[in-house]
Structure formats: structure tokens, C-alpha cells
Amino acid sequence: MSSKMPEIDPEQEKQDILKAYKKLLRSTKRNEAKGDLKLIRKAFDVALDAHKDMRRKSGEPYIYHPIAVAEIVTSEIGLGAKSIVCALLHDTVEDTDLTVEDMSRMFGDKVAQIIDGLTKLSTVLDIQEDKSLQAENFRKMLLTMSSDIRVILIKLADRLHNMRTLGSMRRDKQLKIASETMFIYAPLAHRLGLYAIKTELEDLSFKYIEPDLYDLIVNKLRDSARQRTRFINKFSFPIINSLNDAGIDYEIKGRTKSVYSIARKMKAQGVPFEEVYDIFAIRLILNCEMENEKSNTWKAYSIVTDHYVPNPGRFRDWVSKPKSNGYESLHTTVMSDSGKWVEVQIRTRRMDDVAEKGLAAHWKYKDANKGDGQPTPTENGFESWLNQIRDLLESPDPNAIDFIDDFKLNLFAEEIFVFTPTGEVRTLPANATSLDFAFEIHTEVGMRCIGAKVNGKLNPLSHNLKSGDQVEVLTSNKQKPKEDWLAFVVTAKAKSKIKQALKEENRKIAMDGKEILERKLKQMKITIDNDLTNNLHKHFKVKTSQDLFIQIAKKTIEFRDIKEFIESSRNASKWYNLLKNRITGTESRQNSALTEKPSRPRPKDKGDTVVIGDANQQMDYVMAKCCSPIPGDDVFGFVTIGEGIKIHRTNCPNAIHIRSNYAYRVVPAAWANKEEHTSFGASILITGIDDMGLVNSITTVISKDLNVNMKSISFESNDGVFEGHIKVLVQGIHHLNNLIDNLKKVDGIKKIVREDEKES
Fold this sequence. Notes:
By secondary structure, this protein is an alpha+beta fold. 49% of the residues lie in helices and 15% in strands.
């Protein structure tokens, strides 16, 4: 039965829109000048007129979206009038007839520049070029961000409101947007110090990517809320008394971990919700002047550890040395009287504001408290990060997806502090190597690096550094960047510079290879052109034409093989055209079968288990090995280049990356029948306490009790703890879950997980 759309009352809608606008004005800073308020009103009027005939998927007027984004920008991020104007207008150039030039004329060049940075590219990319419009759009936005950080802050507000209202979208759209958010926007919010926004983006993304697990955790948290409150009150009582006796002005909060972070712990540790022990933390927020911040936080730390024993391995001091995104706090984990570990975070009101609202809050406090104009460590750290982004943007690398992967390396959560021989501190991501440190000093130092002395001891380039290490870089003028360096460096700067150097070297080799090919083809009276080059690099299975020329120069590809291919060019041309049609979906099912590789026949026993596309078509496909879907799993199809359609699980370790970069090659897929008599392979990992007869008990449950066939089984035991890897044939997800539930009842088994669900 189709639901009837509610009748629209234009006058009521007009009143509701004005209410939303007035609510936005109440959220703006009180010190906005009259001129700023007029500019905001002008932007609202322009946006209202531009979007007057547009509605969102939910049916509501589109103007609600830019108003909501503007409210997030001012109330949750803390930006000013110009950012509010840009937020109100952020979709006008992309979705209406207004242009960047119109924005410049009405609101000035700066507003126009920011809106242009927020406007997506309209180019349609050729699927054969293996490019990603999503990645290209993100690179365009970062180009503007490198000169004005407000671009990315407004984009995060835009994404947050889209995630809050994602329920009205189709399932495939929900998964695409949620995956993008988890892949790039949540880490970016973290890097900018917007922890509240980062947490909400992660939780909302997780809600759509894994709805069942999300609902389970939310329900468990709700059911255990009273128990947690009682525990927090009992734990806090002695601390509160001591803080009062010491005359410290404070606020104490109990903070539950986010749904997504709890889910990650459950997966990483292979435990149920009940066995995730650090579900909540205590936060002490101190009210004091800036000059007393350090002494007061350490005083509060001393009071906490007077009552509870701290875990030395879980102490973090970001007060003495703040994170590069401005985060300041003392973190310690202490043992409670009930035998549970409890994390305690100690910070001042200013530190808490910066932790929640990021850099915008930091600048607010700087304006209020600093008059010397000197950059703070936070500003230096942030400017250093922006410089790294600018370095990446200046790289000639045309591949936007490689660029995004390198950019993500700049969004590291954990940091280490390393010293130069003169005592200068350098901040690097955790697991950084001596070579990363060399590139951090200077690009040329990295290029010529042959080793490093770490704390006076000679170590290789790949040596992982730790906080407190003092590093002296050793160089040689004969040294050149090597391809194997890319296997162990972790910073975006090192990867980018090494790639640049290797590309320049490869460009020279490729020029030689192209000259060799042109000369040989000239003897055959053939002129080289793009079609021939493209067919050659596809035939020899190299990624690009440059790779083809390099292999010709290195004689990895012999000319006799090229000659043989050219002589059968008619067949090669037919193969190429069929492949192109197959990827773009314009061929018939019968023609598709002609292009199927003999080595990848459609499994005969599978029937039409999976149907593909909105019309539930029966098409050729293979199951992705990275996640091994079985009937009942939530799945999607991914159109590969050269290997047909692969079926992945929605929570596959690679799903977020695929949807974030190649959404245009993702197709809906579903099981024709939830459970079938056909068997599918699944792998499970079992760990527990080694005991006589345990393996026999496990095999009895699998083979006799549940009639499940085992493909393979292997066990390793070490100091009384065993780990077993078992591959079984099951009919679907319910069959597998039933097996896991029964195995959990075996004495000695502590943890069972589906192997492809482990944290990647």
C-alpha cells in the first residue's frame, strides 16, 4: 500500500522556515556586528530564493538543510559570520543557476572562493580510466582548504547534517555516504580536534553499515545505564570529597564510550559486549586561570591516584606536550575497588572546549588571552600539517585515489615525539621509521638517507622509532630513493616524495622504452597511437602506458610478443570492445558470456544464488575472497575491470574503501533465497584453554551434532593457550551462527570469531 504524501501548507512552511532562521540567529555569536547580521540575512534570502522549488528526499523544503548546516557551523564548531554566510550558500552553485561569479559579485571574493571549494566537480569520468569522481572532488576541496581551513569545517558540518538525516535515502545511497564518512570525514574531524563531531559521524556511519550490531550495542547500553550510573557515583565519591577539601573548582562527568568504539573493541578482542570492560570513563573538568592550568591538573591527578592504583602503561600526558591538533589532557587508567579498570581524564574548562570544538575554540581562547602575536605550539603543529597537505597538492601525481590514501596518512591518531641531535622536538605518527624522520627534517636529507643512529646506536632505515628517541640521520650523495622504501615509510610526506622521485626516474626510462617501440614499429610500417598503446598495456596486464614502456626498456616485455599481439589485432580489438561494453553494462547477457575468461567459469552448483541490480537480474559473478559472503549476509556487487562482478559483504574489510572511491561501480545485490541447500565456505578462529579431549569435543559438535562438513582444521598450542583455524561448509549465515553458538558451549573455549570479521 503506497503511503499518501501529506498535504503542503505553503503559509505554514513559510512560518516554519522563518522559525528555523531565527533559531540560527540565536545561535550566532552575540558580538556579531550589525553589518554581519545584514550579510547573513542577505545570504539567507539568496539561498531561500535559489532553492525555492527544491525539496529533500524526506519531502521537506531544501532550505532547511543549509540553515541546519549554518547552525552546526556556529553552535557546534564556533565559526563566525562569514562561515555562516558560506554555509547558507554552500549548495547554490552546485544545485542552482547561480555561479561562482555571482557569489563574488554579491558577497566578495573570499566567500566565492570557499563556496567554489565546496562545489563538486560535474565531470563524468570514463570508467575505463579507473578514476574516482569522489576522490577528485575531495582533492578539489583540499586545494581550497590549504588556503582557508573554513572550507573543510563547513564541509564537515554539511556531512554531519546529511548523516543526521540519512534515514530518508535508499539503502545503497546510505551505504555509499556512510562509507565515505567513515573513510575520510570522521578521521578528518579527529585531526582537526572536533572530537564530538568525529564521534557522532562514526556512530551514524556505523548505524547504517552494520545496523544489527549497532542496535545490539545501543540496547545493551540502555539496559545497563542504571548500573553504570551507580558504579560511577560510588567510584567518584572519594575523589569528590578530596577535591572539595583541596578547594578545587571542578565539574565531574561520567562519559560512555561511543557505540563504534565499543564495536571495534568487541571485534578486535573477539568478546561480547559484557566483556568490554572500559565502556565508560570519568572526566574531571577544572575551572581555573590559564597560568594555573598545569599545576591544577597535576594536583587533581595526585588526588585521583591517592585513592586508586594507576596502570603505568596506560598513562598519557598531553598537558606538557599537547597533540598537534591542540588536544590537551591527562589520561590515566586506575583500578577501582570492584576490580574494574576505569579511565580518568583530567583537563581544564579551556582544554575541554578545545577538545570538543577543535581549532576554532583554540583561536577563541588565543584572542582572549594572548596579545604577543606569537604562534602557539598548537598553531605551529597545525600549520606544519597544512604545509604537508600543500606538499601533497603540489605533487604531480594524477591519481586522486593515491592522493587520498596518502592524505589519510596525515590523519594519524597516535603521535610520538622524537628529538634531533640538537634537542629539537619533531612530532611523527606512531610506527614512524628512521626514514620518515629524515624526510621530516628535509626532503633532500630523506632522499640521501642511508641509515640513522638512534640513541647513539646504528639502525637501518626501517627502524621503528619510539617517543623520546634521539635520532641522527646518516646520508650519502650516492644514495637514491628505492621502491622498497614505500613498504615501510608511514608519513604522507615521505611516501609522496619517494613516489615523486621514482616517477621522475621511471619517466626517463619510459621515454627510452617508447623510443625503442616506435623504432621497431616503424620497421613494420606501423605508427603508434593511443588505441594501440591502450590495447598493448591491457594485453600485457600493466596498469598504464608508462609501465608498458618501462617494461619494454627493461626487456621484461620482448618485442616478439608485441609483434605477435599486433598480428592478431583484430581479435584484440574485439576483446577490448567487449570488455568495455561489459564494464559499462551495455552488452547483452549472451555477449557477456563470450568475454568470460576460461579460468573463471560460473560455478555450476551455485544456481542463481545472488541477483544483481535494482531489477534483480541474474548475471555472472564471483564471491570476493576477502570476506567470503554466505547466504544471509548483507551484500553488494562491485564491477571490477577485467574480472567481472565480485560480491562483497556490506561489512567487508574493503567495503568502506570501495564505496568511498568507486561508488559508481557498486551495484545492488541480494540473495535470491536467504538459505539454500548449496554449501558455502566459511572460516572461524577459535581460542581458549588447551585441555585433553578439547579438539575431539569441537569436531563432535561440528561433524556429528550439526552435520557440518569440515574442509580443514588446524590447531596450535602455546603455554596452555590454543588457537584453532577451521574451514567449514555451511548453507548460510543462520547455519554458521548456530554452529558458533553451539561451539561456545564447549568447556575451555574463550573466543570464537568469523576470521574475515577480525579488525584489518
